[in-house]
């Protein structure tokens, strides 16, 4: 009997969608921040950072594939319109509290729901988008409970702190849906 592993799921899929006008202003602002040459184009290697700022959490492999998608002519850059087209062509998977919990559990060597401060500090200063000392200090204020004397980070508490907008987004969506039903905008 051979063992197999389930390949990791992509964080995006080809699925056409409309980019909302409200989002376009935010996307444009972020794009301009990366357009250091003021030539209305951004180097292709900046795409992952832009997507992460837009809350599109992608893996390194996904980043390479998306860089190819946005720059098939190998120009080395992309324009604002290219970015909007990419965001229109692909549906990105949103992080959920469970996704974050699963990721944090990878650092939970004792499988007890806690990560030692030292392990978490090492992770934040060496992996992914590296935190500088000021960012690390600020983040640790939130990560460690003020009454915590063991220097252990509760991963459930941390996931709630890091993704508070998930619950707020669900509540807003439910409120909008309820308002639309009450006002007769949605038909049964």
Your description of this structure?
- The protein has 188 residues and is mostly helical.
- It folds into two domains: 12-92, Recoverin, domain 1; 97-162, EF-hand (Recoverin, domain 1), CATH 1.10.238.10.
- Helices cover 53% and strands 9% of the residues.
- The protein has helices at residues 21-34, 47-53, 60-70, 80-89, 97-105, 117-126, 133-143, 155-162, 164-182, and strands at residues 12-14, 42-43, 77-78, 90-92, 114-116, 152-154.
- The strands form three sheets. Strands 1-4 form a two-stranded antiparallel ribbon. It has a two-stranded antiparallel ribbon with strand order 2-3. A two-stranded antiparallel sheet has the order 5-6.
- Helix 5 (97-105) crosses helix 8 (155-162).
- It is globular and about 55 Å long.
- The model is unreliable at 1-9 (pLDDT under 50).
- Belongs to the centrin family.
- It comes from Stylonychia lemnae (Ciliate).
- One of its GO terms (cellular component) is myosin II complex.
Task: Sum up the structure in keywords.
188 residues, mainly alpha, Recoverin, domain 1, 2 domains, two-stranded antiparallel ribbon, calcium ion binding, EF-hand-dom_pair, cytoplasm, EF_hand_dom, cytoskeleton
Shape: globular
Q: CATH-wise, what's the superfamily of the largest domain?
A: EF-hand
Portion in beta strands = 5-15%
Termini separation = 51 Å
Query: Which architecture of the largest domain would the CATH scheme give at its second level?
Result: Orthogonal Bundle
Please write the CATH class name of the largest domain: Mainly Alpha
Total domain units: 2
Return the structural class: mainly alpha
Element pattern in H and E: EHEHHEHEHEHHEHH
CATH fold group of the largest domain: Recoverin, domain 1
The total count of strands amounts to 6
Radius of gyration: 20 Å
- Classify the helix fraction into a percent range: 40-55%
Could you describe the largest sheet, including whether it forms a barrel?
2 strands, antiparallel
Tally of individual helices = 9
